[in-house]
Design brief:
Blueprint: H1 18-57, H2 62-82
């Protein structure tokens, strides 16, 4: 897509002409879409961890129960950190 045709010398109140404003808005929308896709993918990974943890926990062995609980905990933490409910582990230190 090409930017809309606007006079090159016309400036808005923010100091940007039409073509510059188009580029800024296009980049902002592109970044927002990529952020949404990334968030959905990370939530999918968190859900898969929780689901796998539940399946492992019900395997019937003690080791399976412990490993399942650890996987569920990691999945819940990963999902909460993705949604910014809690701080990511990088910010703890």
């Amino acid at each position: 897509m090409s930017p809309p045709e606007v006079e090159a010398n016309s400036r808005g109140s923010d100091g940007l002409n039409g073509q510059e404003l188009y580029v800024v808005i296009r980049k902002a929308v592109e970044d927002a879409i990529l952020e949404i896709i990334g968030t959905l993918l990370l939530l999918g990974v968190a859900l898969a961890l929780v689901w796998a943890g539940i399946a492992i926990a019900f395997s019937g062995t003690t080791f399976g129960l412990v490993a399942g609980i650890v996987a569920i905990g990691c999945g819940v933490y990963f999902g909460a950190a993705t949604l910014r409910i809690i701080l990511p582990i990088q910010k703890w230190f």
